[in-house]
Amino acid sequence: MDCLQANTIYQGCALELARRFRDQTPVVQAVVTSPPYFGHRVYSDSDSRELGRESTVSDYVERLVETLDALRPLVVNDGVLWLNLGDTYRNGVLQSVPWRVALAMQDRGWLLRSDVIWHKPNAMPSAASRRPTVDHEYLFLFSKSRRYFYDADAVREPHVTFSEHSRMRGGRKHFGIRHGTPESGKLAGQINMHNGRWDQAFHPRGRNRRTVWSVPLGKCREAHFAVFPERLVEPCILSTVPPQGLVLDPFMGAGTTACVAMRHGRRYIGFELVPEYVALAKRRIAAVTAS
Ligand SMILES: C[S@@+](CC[C@H](N)C(=O)[O-])C[C@H]1O[C@@H](n2cnc3c(N)ncnc32)[C@H](O)[C@@H]1O
What we know:
- This protein is of the alpha/beta class.
- It has helices at 14-20, 57-70, 97-107, 195-202, 230-240, 256-263, 275-290, and strands at 8-11, 28-33, 75-85, 89-90, 93-94, 111-119, 136-143, 212-214, 246-249, 267-272.
- The chain is built from 7 helices and 10 strands.
- The strands form 2 sheets. An 8-stranded mixed sheet has the order 1-10-9-2-3-7-6-8, sandwiched between helices. The chain has a two-stranded antiparallel ribbon with strand order 4-5.
């Protein structure tokens, strides 16, 4: 039986590769990927297996979801799939592509856990004058089963309203003593100090990560397409792939997912259709491992 090798990029069509390896034991903790968007750009010269060139939205959704669902046997039972997708306008009409894909994934049994908004503070200006300029994309988190691995502590963010220096009423001093807690302060035992409030106000590592992530677009001089910003991939890998764990990107492109995985002591597997991008990803990964 063909077995997936960690820290390897397989050149070929993601759907064909997923099928080739479907009988092996599940090894992937998280799929983290940004497939070609519907009708945005062309990556290969003439490979008909390339995704994103379909003539209708429904053909695109069907092919993408078929490919992603074919990865299910490779994912461990408590594993997840992070999917980054942007939308497409046709004749000025928004096609709702990300949500069509999310709903189709749910129909296939994937459990939608989060719809993160990736806000791009440096998004390209547009000629739109009869609607707002788009400066966001989606990052969906799906789990394969009811129980899934998620390390919230690895991706906490700074407290905002209840920081150490906050002057807002209801801040730390609210509990009577500096560094007071709901348990030790003057409001000890109050029933409205539920877990959510504790987490928001006092968790020593920060508050639970929120669903709007503001991350500037990434730059990669060698790639002729938008690469994942590393800061977008980092929280996905840190929260859902344990150290030494394995992350798969079936649309590897310039290899950003693999670079982030290596930087953080995780391992990767990549699928990529275009040989030239496989070579580019290998160069970028080699630069990370050499540093
Ligand atoms: C948006 S890019 C991915 C960029 C990547 N996240 C990065 O940071 O570099 C999408 C990639 O999917 C590849 N691709 C398109 N159709 C494919 C298919 N059927 N199988 C595998 N890869 C495919 C394209 O060649 C392209 O490199």
